[in-house]
Amino acid sequence: MGMATCSSTSSKIAPSKDALKPSCEHPILSTFDIPTSPVPKTDPYEHLHIAPNLDGTITRLLNVPTVEANPEATHGDAVVCKDLTLNAEKQTWIRIYRPTKLPSNDNTIARLPIIIYFHGGGFILLKASMKQPHQTCSELASEIPAIVVSLDYRLAPEHRLPAQYEDAIDAILWAKQQVMDTNGEQWLKDYGDCSRCYLCGRGCGGNMVFHAALSALDLDLKPLKISGLVLNQPMFGGSERKKSELMSVDDPVLPIQALDLMWELSLPVGTDRDHPFCNPVVEGPHKRKISSLGRCLVTGFSGDAMFDRMQDLVSMLLRSGVKVEARFHDPGFHNVDIVDGQCALTLLNSIKEFVI
Q: What DSSP element (H or E) covers 25?
């Protein structure tokens, strides 16, 4: 597997502002072992390192490092974080991040934007405490800077969609409650700017951003205001194959067989990939609400199996009058920013520019 030079492409949908030319190495689905040869057309369960159980659940075989929370800063820490229960019955929780160096204005600590973050993993893998989501949230908190609320949501197939969207709404309502409650979470109350709340997600987390934002339109979130949506390489699909999907059969990161399995395990039983949870371009009640969404930043790479889906999403948003900034790069691959530092910096800077 060779190296590829990743440069910005002027999308016919929404051109990128800047010329971005990071060097990009082909990654795997997450921060797991990077393959050195193409993945053959084999069992997608093996590719994803999961095993099916007779009761419909799966056993996750990946040994992924986790990071403990550090609520008290030690020398050199750029960020502190702590874990809090969100819903004990659902066994969901959040990890909240705060930069140790807080910006000030006239000796008064400046309020920071609040970013509610949804990690990737195809709805079936990963936890908020794992190394990659933790590192991403730490960088967002320190470099933007921001207060970051990272959601550890329920996973499929044990909890199929829309459980993940419901957990996302729980996190949004939790943030609202903290800023309203006199005994609310101190980091949000003392340092967060509830008028600048952003939803941000990678992969399936980008899908969650889209659907949670639509659901949030029906809620009274005041004084919390969702100012923008960040969809990083969002996970969408459909029954009819797109060109980018057909080209990914032997992709070592995310072959289409593995992507199909993720949808099979996460969509409601009895539905197909043209369900709106998977394919937002199809007609349905959700389409009437899209025009009310706020600003959107959509990022993607042309070598991603879902690249054509991302372009379709941006086209739909623009047709609905949504203000969209699309940062599409060529060539790149799904999750390329995880293994390539320059790609990660490019993405971080894009988010930083978007979060105002």
A: strand 23-25
Amino acid at 52: P
Contact between 77 and 83 (Cβ < 8 Å): no
Contacts for 108 with CB less than 8 Å, ≥ 6 apart: none
Phi-psi group of 122: left, alpha or beta (phi > 0 → left; psi -120 to 50 → alpha; rest → beta): left
Nearest of 38, 31, 28 to residue 1 by alpha carbon:
38
- The token pair at 257 is 């067989």
Q: What is the pLDDT of residue 330?
A: 81
Query: In whole numbers, what is the pLDDT of the chain averaged over residues?
Result: 88
DSSP string covering 93-160: EEEEEEESS--EETTEEPPEEEEEEE--STTTS--TTBHHHHHHHHHHHHHTT-EEEEEE---TTTS-
Whether this model's pTM surpasses 0.85: yes
Q: Which of 98-112, 140-154, 172-186, 213-227 has the lowest mean pLDDT?
A: 98-112
* Residue 296 · residue 325 · CB < 8 Å: yes
